Amino acid sequence: MRKPFIPAAFLSALFLTSCGGGAPAPSAARNANATASGNAQTSIQHGPSSSNPGVTASHGGTTGAAPSAADAASERALVDTKELDARIKSAAEKARASGASASDKKAAADAYLARGNVYWSGGNPKLYKYALADFRKVLAYDPSNDEAKQKIDTIVGIYQSMGRPVPEVPDEP
Question: Which of 114, 131, 133, 166, CA to CA, is 20 to 30 A from 84?
Answer without folding.
Answer: 166
